[in-house]
Amino acid sequence: PASLTVAEAEDLDRRAMVLNATSLVALLVCGVLFITWLFRVHRSTDLDRTFMEHKSGWAIGGWFVPFLNLWRPLQMVLDVFRGASGSVTLSWVAVAWWVTLLTARVLDGAASALTPAASEFRWYAEEAIGQANMLVIAAAADIVAALVTIVMLQLAANAVRRRLASK
C-alpha cells in the first residue's frame, strides 16, 4: 500500500466500479431469467400438480417477501422436481444450489461491509486490500453457485423431459 500512488489507487477504484457494475448487471439479467424460467416451468400443465405444494405465483413472489425469501425459492424448485418426477430424489441438488447461492450472497454482503472509509490514504489502501481479498472469496463463491445452478437447471430440465417422454 505504501508504494501505491493516489493516481494508481484511483485507477484501481475505477476498474473495480466497472467490474462491480458489470457483475450487478449480469446478476440482474440472470436473476430475471431464472425467476422467469422457474415461474413458467412451475405453472406448466406438463407437471403433475398433485405432487406440487405451492401456487406458481410464489415462484416470483417468494424471492421478494422478506424472510420468506430465505426458503421459498428452494421450495419452488423442489416443487418442480416433485411435479416432474413424483418425488424429490434430486432434492440434494436443489439444497446444494440454495446453500451455495445463500453463501455467495452472505460473502458478497460481507465484502461490501468491508468497504473502507475515505480516511487517510495509507489506511484506506490497507483496508481496500482487505476488502479486495474478501471480494475474491465472494467471487469464487459466486462461481461455485453459478456452476451448481447450471447442474440443478440441467437436472430439472431432464426430469421435465423424461416426464414429457413418458406421456
Task: Please outline what is shown here.
The protein is mostly helical. It contains 5 helices and no strands.
Question: How is this structure best described in words?
Answer:
The chain has 167 residues and is mainly α. Helix content is 74%, strand content 0%. It has five helices and no strands. The longest helix has 46 residues, at 121-166. The model has no long low-confidence stretch (mean pLDDT 86).
Please estimate the helix content: over 70%
Overall geometry comes to: elongated
The termini sit apart by 65 Å
How many strands, which pairing sense, and closed or not: the largest β-sheet? none
Average pLDDT score: 86
Class by SSE composition: mainly alpha
Strand content: under 5%
CA radius of gyration: 20 Å
The number of helical elements comes to 5
Number of strands: 0
Poorly predicted parts: none
Order of helices and strands: HHHHH
List the helices and strands and how they pair.
Elements: H1 6-42, H2 58-61, H3 72-85, H4 91-113, H5 121-166
Helix pairs in contact: 3-4, 3-5, 4-5
For this entry, give a set of tags.
mainly alpha; 167 residues; 74% helix
